[in-house]
Design goal:
CATH topology of the largest domain: Molybdenum Cofactor Biosythetic Enzyme, Chain A
Structural class: alpha/beta
Number of helices: 9
CATH class of the largest domain: Alpha Beta
Strand content: 15-25%
Order of helices and strands: EHHEHEHEHHEEEEHEHEEHE
Largest sheet: 6 strands, mixed
Number of domains: 2
Number of strands: 12
């Protein structure tokens, strides 16, 4: 199953806040042997959010959605999810209990709206302030605040998808190529990818920023048993095409913050 992300908020689209969720979600998944396959950014447009969710609900991907589940007029995600799924938006009993447990006598109808989810949803506990997120099928909706969202994502992964952890180990290796161009290397890349069915070949060119020598990072990622042989084919091919290469160390995956 593939993993996707939807990151919602006008504040991101207009540059008032910088997104932090994408990099952190990649790190959280990587620490469990998983990878993110796609990400989409959306403004606070009910039509756009609804149409996007209608499309992703129809697929099989595991999707994490960040933002828009509060109770202010610009928080549309809960209602859009219900509309996209064709179900009612209803007050979830467990979410209501958490809200009442936090606010007590100060519980208001507006605060209870934060517990209204598409019918059939399950809650995602929020240990920070007890305002739950929700899961609907393979879609998981969390707040836009990183301090709340990231532990909630980890909780979902641990509770729902442990059977996928490290199921398909993946490694990466690459070299720095000089005295060549991507157009020259493309047939070599295609040949290596055709030969090794469980690998992807990649190239990352640099135009020489900061006084660096122009180069291309050329490598493969995928099945550990295929990577060494594929890299030898790439290095040999670069040399035969008149280029030069040198070893390139891939940095370790970053630690995941809670």
């Amino acid at each position: 199953m593939s993993f996707g992300a939807i990151i919602i908020g006008d504040e991101i689209m207009r540059g008032k806040r910088a997104d932090k969720h994408l990099a952190q979600l990649i790190a959280i998944l990587r620490s469990r042997g998983l990878t993110l396959d796609w990400c989409q950014y959306l403004g606070d447009s009910p039509e756009l959010i609804t149409s996007t969710l209608k499309r992703t609900f129809a697929g099989r991907d595991i999707v994490f959605s960040f933002g828009g589940i509060g109770a202010t007029p610009d928080d549309h995600t809960r209602a859009c999810a219900a509309a996209a799924a064709g179900v009612d938006l209803v007050l979830h009993s467990e979410a209501e209990a958490e809200i009442r447990g936090r606010f007590g006598a100060e519980t208001t109808p507006n605060r209870l709206k934060m517990g209204e989810f598409p019918s059939g949803s399950t809650i995602i506990p929020n240990s920070y302030n007890r305002i739950c997120g929700f899961s609907f099928g393979e879609h998981h909706f969390v707040p836009g605040f990183p301090i709340m969202a990231w532990p909630m994502v980890e909780w979902v992964l641990e509770q729902r998808y442990r059977h996928l952890f490290h199921l398909q180990p993946e490694i990466e290796a690459s070299v720095m190529v000089y005295d060549s161009a991507e157009s020259i290397l493309t047939p070599l890349m295609e040949a290596v990818e055709a030969k090794y069915k469980r690998l992807k070949v990649f190239s990352l060119p640099s135009v020489g920023e900061g006084g660096q020598r122009r180069h291309i990072e050329l490598g493969v990622r995928g099945a550990p048993d295929e990577v060494p042989a594929a890299m030898e084919d790439l290095k040999r091919g670069v040399t035969e095409l008149g280029g030069s290469w040198e070893a390139h160390a891939v940095p370790a995956a970053p630690d995941v913050a809670g």
